Fold each of these.
Amino acid sequence: MPELPEVETMVRGLRPALSGRTVRRLELLDPTLLQGCTPGQLARRGRGATVVGVARRGKWVVMELAGNRGIIVIQPRMTGGFWLVEPARAEHVRLVFHVGNPGARVWYCDARRLGKVCWYADESAAAEAFARSHGPDALEIARDELARRLDRTSRGIKPTLMDQKVLAGIGNIYADETLHRARIHPERPASSLTAEEVERLHRSIGEVLATAIELEGSSFDAGYRTVLGLEGGFLAQNSVYGRKDQPCPTCARPILKTKIAGLVGRPTYYCPACQVRG
Ligand SMILES: [Zn+2]
């Protein structure tokens, strides 16, 4: 599922195609994804509107329309993604932005249709909606704020990092990579972390996410692709995720694959030597 680096990569790919461009038509092929207005309202608000900017908030893609036409938020969730080239699977297209020159299009595809297309009246309405279900963005959270939030729960640190209400943007892959880099066992109770460990964790979150954004995210299956249909490069050089029995890049011990409490159906990878339970 797209996490913060994949959504940031989508946003960076969309900007040159959408920012400053005029929407000729919004073609909504799957109205069940729409929230906050009717398909007719969306079409009227989109037609002729200029896209002021495209931004990321957590795992949301936020598009602002000029002239009080509102904000369109797309949440790719499990299988959503954007295409600037003709999508490989036409049957997965849910929304088409006809923008700029005649013939120019941007496609939103979603194989399992679990994503959402939401309309908000303005920036503050979108920000409020985000704040109701999310903590601060993982790239923006201050160390002290992270420490306060971790201190409130004795749940394992890994499920806590993946809880979007604690901080927004981190899922299974980047939780494993961040904890390995910070040398913290995934099942340590969040509130048991020392100040030094929180410091390491905070730094690791920033470093791992920055590297992943640079490499355009992670493609571990047919799901995520960049807007040009390419695979992200992060999993070609990461440390633990998907690397069962391969040597830890720090100490060469084999990486373990396991299941931990609080994460149904999702594996956890870690190094038993670098990440001792304590
Ligand atoms: Zn190790």
Note: The mean pLDDT is 96.
Amino acid sequence: MDLQGFQPCFYCFEYNKIATDYPINNAIHDRDGFTPRCHLHWEYNCSKCESSVHFNGIAWCSSCKEFTCRSCVREKMVREEFLCYDYYYSIPCHRCGKLNPALDFAEYNGTHPFQIGDLKPKEQVVVWMPIYKEELEAQKFPHKAWGSERILSTGESVRHKRLESLNEYTPKNTWDALASKWISPEEDEEEYHHTHLILPDVYRLLNAKKDEEILDVACGEGTVVRYLAKHGAKVTGIDISNMIDRAIEREKKDKLGIRLLKLNAEELHNEFERGYFDKVVCNMALMDIADFKVTLKNIAHVLKDNGIFVFSITHPAFAWPASTTLRIPKGSKRNEDRVRIIQNYFDERPSLITYWEDFPSVCFQRPISSYVNELVKNNLEIMEMSEPKASEELVEKFPGKAYLDNDIFAEFLIIKTRKKSDS
Ligand SMILES: [Zn+2]
Ligand SMILES: [Zn+2]
Ligand SMILES: [Zn+2]
């Protein structure tokens, strides 16, 4: 183990990204590990159980001059934004019961025992004094990146954060902004996910026949409607965003007789008669639609009895934002250096996902049961489910994309349903 060379402490380094005056200490612990740490950000001995505990799970009581760890008492969670976090643990002193923050928040608060002089660090460490605390508080911290993103981020991964409301970002305005950037899968030879994984199964399950009335909900720039029209179906596409202008343009240039309407899926029942369509498709859009319950209800309404409804979504369990990726070593681009982590499967709040720099999109994570129960409620009987898996040929053709990726886990979920007759 080389103790001579300077190796930045993982936490100092992370905090420095947020508080630029934060000093970066040399890591002296766990130098061979994933997260080498300085003395300040290492472990402290609990005065009760004597265990050595990670600094973010132990608190200092300046009245009793003692440490208490989380395992010895029952901690409370306090929601407060600081550094890269959005909460801290408040830990009652095992002796006097006074609530003290765990050392990560104590440091930010300027009450760490090293900062107030209760203890002297045994080893060399530069202790930060948050003299710019007011300034810091005025800043917007990027604390909303989820756990593993923060701990060992891929560097260039998709960023996502949870939103409490949709004031600033809505599915419509984010897709409006993306409309000019979006490249249709047919226009991009290198396009992989839509062309090779999703669309083949969507088309197979929909099994469009000549003269069938088919509705594409959230048709976007028109990939699916154009495919269906070329196969002889009578196609209608609706979309609430400016993406549909691209479909309208394409239809003007190369007429296939597609009816295109800028329409919210929530208005479907006002525009079309009950049971009007033989089939409905919704490709890679339900997870971008805020009110999926109303949307499914309306789809069931405009679908005839025994009609088919097929939809594809990002996989509720294995795709963003329910899951994220951990890369060891950090930044490695090889897929074998990567593990997939589930972290927010039940969190149905909207998420902001940045696939493209400056063009975030809003996504609604929902557990599989939420989708299935809503289908059941609307008399939509599941006939087949598909979790597209990359074939050997696909791995051969797109090794960087498919190998140890879509050949080992499902990134998309496609469901075929049939509307049962009410009677
Ligand atoms: Zn440190
Ligand atoms: Zn303890
Ligand atoms: Zn105490």
Note: Residues 61, 63-64, 93, 95-96, 98 surround zinc ion (ligand 3) (CB under 6 Å).
